[in-house]
Automatic annotation (TrEMBL):
Needed co-factor(s): Zn(2+)
Annotated metabolic or biological route of this protein: Nitrogen metabolism; (S)-allantoin degradation; allantoate from (S)-allantoin: step 1/1
Keyword Ribosomal protein among record annotations: no
The protein's name: allantoinase
InterPro entries membership: Allantoinase, Amidohydro-rel, DHOase/Allantoinase_Hydrolase, Dihydroorotase_CS, Metal-dep_hydrolase_composite, Metal_Hydrolase
Lineage of producing organism: Bacteria, Pseudomonadati, Bacteroidota, Cytophagia, Cytophagales
GO cellular component term, pick one: cytoplasm
Signal peptide boundaries: none
Main enzyme class: hydrolase
Ranges where the Amidohydrolase-related domain occurs: 51-405
E.C. number(s) listed in UniProt: 3.5.2.5
């Protein structure tokens, strides 16, 4: 493995952003110091005024392989990842086929990565009705935690759980110290939207904040009862922030993420028929999303993850503009950093905030905080060099996702990835892939 030093004026360390020299050997960070050691005769890379940060960790990605590689797949997803400075992903147990709810399915998932893993990747197991007996065998195979839905997932072979299912599973997860990630919407049979299927307001009405708020209330109650690590994925309802704050004041093992799209877009901007914006829960009004920003800055929301969930154009109903039948998911993996930075810098946030929201706190959820998410001695040399001042216009040509359809097309974003390192190996530099298939499978040990 390469041995080298990388220095810069803006290195994000646990002690703050400062000039520093990072020494790398055998894929690990061996020292972080103020100057190059006397007599050092290995290569020295100068990041100059760019930011040197830990590689981004995204624990909420739908890669969809095996079975639905026409939606995305490991090759395209992990190419997009290293081009965007993402050095570790954690793949969701759906929308692959089979879904990752058994050891047999997990084995097929691992096999599907062969020759196509360009960044590091871990895996969540799936919690569905009737698979309680599969939880510990999946833990033994190395999954990092489990994901459940409280409403229909969009995939019939990944049904939602009930409170009774959760009560069977949470004691097991608590015993092993693994997190339960929950899509928090408790839907009702009541028809809430009867307007035009092309109307975004109609779609927004169909998935009210109350669905989220009731589901989060349930999960907080069960989190406290079982002392089970509980993680709320893609929070969109600011109405739940008070309950989340109270739970954290009680020191419950509760964490929360929101998505870039809830921070970058507002419902008022979305025109009828623009199904590229459809996600669940939906993008809400500006006043709501401003509250999410406040909670993120105060640490009430722990981090930001893309929930990259692409689908072919026909499933997104791009031609018809039918929000009610379109697949709900936003493609944004490669743009994770500049989307968030573009919006964050307008609110006076800094690079240290970005490292906390995209690197350090996601590592904690995935149980990787002892080796990833920080520039510190003994940590993996997964590194990102980026320029926080340069801007670009998002085009289809620059995107490495399988499908180029994204609500960010033609947007002007700030922050460009200059170099991505995996275990000290340069894998992406100046817009070009340097080394492919350098990713490793990340399992719980």
């Amino acid at each position: 493995m390469p041995e080298f030093a990388i220095k810069g004026d803006n290195v994000v360390t646990p002690e703050g952003i400062q000039p520093a020299v990072v020494l790398v050997s055998n894929s690990l960070i061996t020292d972080v110091r103020s100057d190059v050691p006397e007599g050092y005769n290995y290569p020295i890379i100068d990041a100059n005024n760019n930011v040197l940060m830990p590689g981004i960790i995204d624990p909420h990605v739908h890669i969809n392989e095996p079975g639905r590689a026409d939606w995305e797949g490991f090759d395209t997803a992990t190419r997009a990842a290293i081009a965007g400075g993402l050095t570790t992903l954690v793949d969701m147990p759906l929308n692959s086929s089979p879904v990752t709810t058994t050891v047999g399915a997990f084995t097929k998932k691992i096999a599907a990565t062969s020759g196509k893993l360009h960044t590091n990747c871990g895996f969540w197991g799936g919690l569905v009705p009737g698979n309680t007996a599969d939880i510990e065998p999946l833990i033994e195979q190395g999954v990092l935690g489990f994901k459940a839905f409280l409403t229909h997932s969009g995939i019939d072979d990944f049904p939602n759980v009930t409170e009774a299912d959760l009560r069977k599973a949470m004691p097991i997860l608590a015993m092993h110290g693994l997190p339960l990630l929950v899509h928090c919407e408790l839907s009702t049979d009541e028809l809430l939207a009867t307007g035009s299927k092309r109307s975004y307001q109609n779609y927004l009405t169909s998935r009210p904040k109350s669905w989220e708020d009731e589901a989060i209330t349930l999960m907080i109650r069960l989190c406290e009862e079982y002392n089970c690590r509980t993680h709320i994925v893609h929070l969109s309802s600011a109405n739940s922030l008070k309950a989340i704050a109270e739970a954290k004041q009680k020191k419950l093992p509760l964490t929360v993420e929101t998505g870039q799209h809830y921070l970058f877009f507002n419902a008022e901007q979305i025109m009828d028929g623009q199904t590229q914006y459809k996600c669940a829960p939906p993008i809400r009004e500006k006043i709501n999303n401003d509250q999410l920003w406040k909670a993120l800055r105060e640490g009430l929301i722990d981090f930001v993850a893309t929930d990259h969930s692409p689908a072919p154009p026909d499933l997104k109903q791009i031609d018809s503009g039918d929000f009610m039948s379109a697949w709900g998911g936003i493609a944004s993996l490669q743009l994770s950093l500049p989307i968030l930075w573009t919006a964050a810098r307008q609110r006076g946030c800094n690079v240290a905030d970005m490292a906390r929201w995209l690197c350090e706190n996601p590592a904690k959820l995935a149980g990787l905080s002892h080796r990833k998410g920080r520039i510190a001695v003994g940590y993996d040399a997964d590194l990102l060099v980026w320029n926080p001042d340069t801007s670009f216009i998002v085009s289809e040509e620059m995107l490495h996702h399988r499908h180029k359809m994204t609500p960010y097309l033609n947007a002007t974003l700030v922050g460009t990835v200059e170099q991505t390192y995996l275990g000290g190996v340069p894998v992406f530099e100046n817009g070009q892939f340097q080394k492919l298939n350098a990713g490793q499978i990340v399992k719980r040990h």
